[in-house]
Amino acid sequence: MPPSEVVDAHAHAWPRWPYQPPVPDDATRGSVEHLLFEMDQNGVGRALVVAAGIDRNTDNNAYVAAAVRRFPDRLVHAADVDCRWTPDYHRPGAADRLREAVSRYGVRVVTHYLAKENDGWLVGDEGRAFFRTAASLGLVLSLAAAPPWHEDLRVVARENPALPIVVHHLGNVLNWPGGADEGLRLVLPGRDLPNLFVKVSGWYYASSEPWEYPHAARLDVARAFHDEWGPHRLVWASDHPVHRRALTYRQTLEIVRRHCTFIDPADLPGVLGGNLAALLPARSSVA
């Protein structure tokens, strides 16, 4: 795979639009075809499609798996396993359900969305078994975790050094009720954990002006991750199609490429694709 290829670390694809208000193009706005169109228009080679069985999309794993079979060189499936909207969220048997999902969908990436409140699951017996199993299977974990989870997440990362954990949307510090500075204090410690990565995305979260571009006042959050974790642990993500509430797909890319001036030009190809590509399964063929 060319080292300069741009790879989207976080996109979704749904056959039914899951958010309010309703949209007139319900069956297509979140479709995989729209995602591929945006990728083609903006020079993005591959995307990690994070399954999320929300609202009317309880079949999202199946939908994404079918899309990956159609476009194996463009899309990678992160399977939804026991996310907070599922009836199995933090019920006993998570490690067995993880094995079953990996076998059913043939994935090497899984996603787990945690609730806002830390229930202690990460460092309990069930959570520890889940993460040990993920590490033993050679998986990558795409994780949604609000700031109160991160102290426990660092325990998980230390116990499973072979498990790459890619945290969503700047650690969700931008929509932390206590403010971004407090969120960063909870999330940033982790300089010594090279298996922790963060998606540079979600600039508009909890913004009073989500349409503002390039969200200059929020670039310091990305800078904080850059300075503490290093550029090799940052991965660009669009958050497609959710970004459409505020930004174009191109703008999600240009915020990083053009406006994150603290990223050395030599490190930018890694942030825009190389860092994530090193974690993902190899392409089945050359596009």
From TrEMBL:
Keywords: Hydrolase, Lyase. InterPro entries: ACMSD, Amidohydro-rel, Metal_Hydrolase. SUPFAM superfamilies: Metallo-dependent hydrolases. GO terms for molecular function: carboxy-lyase activity; hydrolase activity. Residues 7-280 form the Amidohydrolase-related domain. The keyword Hydrolase applies. PANTHER family: 2-AMINO-3-CARBOXYLMUCONATE-6-SEMIALDEHYDE DECARBOXYLASE, CATALYTIC_ HYDROLASE. This is Putative TIM-barrel fold metal-dependent hydrolase. The lineage of its organism: Bacteria, Bacillati, Actinomycetota, Actinomycetes, Jiangellales.
